[in-house]
Amino acid sequence: MLDWQADQAGYEGAVKEDGRGKTTWDTFAHTFGKIVDFSNADVAVDQYHRFEEDIQLMADMGMDAYRFSIAWSRILPNGIGQVNQAGIDHYNKLIDALLAKALIPLVITMEQRNTQISKLTSHKHFNEHLVCRNKTTPMLETTKPQVVQ
Predict the structure, then answer these.
(1) What torsion, rounded to 10 degrees, do the Cα atoms 123, 128, 131, 137 define?
(2) For the chain, how far is it from start to end, CA to CA, in angstroms?
(3) Three-state SS for 108?
(4) How many angstroms separate the CA atoms of 65 and 3, rounded?
(5) Residue 132 · residue 99 · CB < 8 Å
(6) What are the angstrom distances between the C-alpha of 49 and each of 3, 21, 23?
(7) β-strands 124-125, 146-147: how paired?
């Protein structure tokens, strides 16, 4: 049973680093007049660079889990084809750092704002999965995707 968890708000920043592809949100946020104050999420909370500090803060606060999303534009920058190893490496480092502090990584496996993946899945929504790299952390049961109308 999870008592206390932290949650990433869905945007890690570092949009132009390590081979990350462009998303629907990137296009929207950079279109003049779409955001009142002309801000964007290119840096956001900078979770991409600051995850180790964030994890230490979570551990210090007694959290036992961290829920975050995978930016598929970082894994498959073009939506299909070659996997971006730098993206895989980032999430491996993040998960390893969580496990090192006894925090359970809870991964949201799909975000609809990623145009490339949305096209590939015909707008299916994938439920959350628990991703772990050791055998002592229990896995959550997964369910079949459901079509989003």
Answers:
(1) -160
(2) 33
(3) strand
(4) 8
(5) yes
(6) 27, 17, 19
(7) antiparallel
Which two tokens mark 68? 């975050």
| Pair of tokens at residue 142 | 């997964």
Measured torsion, CA atoms of residues 94, 5, 74, 135, in degrees rounded to the nearest 10: 50
pLDDT tens for each residue of 42-95: 888 888 999 999 999 999 999 999 988 888 889 889 888 899 999 999 999 999
Mean of pLDDT over the chain: 74
Structure-block tokens of residue 120: 């590939």
d(CA 121, CA 58): 34
Please determine, for residue 144, whether its predicted confidence score (pLDDT) is greater than 70: no
What is the sign of the dihedral through the CA atoms of 111, 117, 122 and 124?
A: negative
How far from 120 is each of 77, 90, 149, CA to CA, in Å? Answer: 13, 23, 16
Q: How does 8-32 read in b/e, with b if 16+ C-beta sit within 10 Å? A: beebbbbbeeebbbbbebbeebeee
- In this prediction, residue 25 has a pLDDT band, given cuts at 50, 70 and 90, of confident
